[in-house]
Amino acid sequence: MECVRLVVLAAAVAMLFPEVASAHEVRPAYLSVQEQAPNEFSVLFKTPMQGDARLALSAAFSGKVENLTPVVSRPTGDAMVQTWQMRAVEPLEGQVVSIDGLQNTMTDALVRVEFASGDVWIERLTPGAPEATIPATPSRWFTAAIYLKLGVEHILLGFDHLLFVLALLIITAGTWRLIKTITAFTVAHSITLALATLGFVHIPSPPVEAVIALSIAFVAVEIVHVRQGRRSLAARAPWLVAFAFGLLHGFGFAGALSEIGLPPGQIPVALLFFNLGVEIGQLLFVGAVLALVALIRVRRRSLPTWLDLVPPYAIGTIAMFWVIERVATF
């Protein structure tokens, strides 16, 4: 019955708010520059599309570069992918790379430059900072800092993962149980993140994303059951649910990391610090939620009991909207 209600609410959201964002609302642009021969690079530039229109973005370098081949463009449904070959007349190291037009948007752009030596430089450009300087020799600590930052940003912008963590916080009673639950989720998604990123396991992304959304809806329904006085496995042992679904969320993290890529020769460092970034972001979110709950409890007055059902129904509605949206893309 609760699932039926959530589906109906999700359908209402889809009709009333067709622009309701998916779990990753702002799709970033992506620029990949890979050295194939001395000073010769293959370039891939992906920009988000809305219908038949693409964001008016272009990649530019401060030094002299020349195209060796025409730019080939092909739409992929939600993005326009452009590829070409270029030669850096002046060394690419030390040049400023910029995404022209980014300052007029609300999206980010991920830039990845890989040299024939195996050195990889990655940076996220934003509307407020649409350019960056390509360093001469990216150090191991530079790589660690970049992937740590990317991990934090991914979890804090991954609204589906945050919504699942929020649902776990609501259904888990007691400090010790909460610690076990968050730890189980962390261990589980760390395992599958490593296995998938290193190529030991591969699962197609669309089904994973759909089941991740379904996992959120499942916990939302369990919260409603608890509010109604029914004790289920999710309420008695939330760490088991967190571990089981955490394995799926790890594949979701791995999908994001695969788009970024791992620098040859520094894969362990990049993987470790990306995962650390995810955990830091997760702990920041948990801390913020607990602080908010503590503040509400201090100032709480008598409120209608039906308000206790608002969070699970809101979480479940959003989750079911994502389920419908993601299944429709299969």
From TrEMBL:
Coiled coil: none annotated. The chain crosses the membrane at residues 155-175, 182-201, 207-225, 237-257, 269-294, 306-324. InterPro entries: Put_HupE_UreJ (IPR032809). Keywords: Membrane, Signal, Transmembrane, Transmembrane helix. Residues 1-23 form the signal peptide. It holds the Pfam family HupE_UreJ_2. This is HupE / UreJ protein.
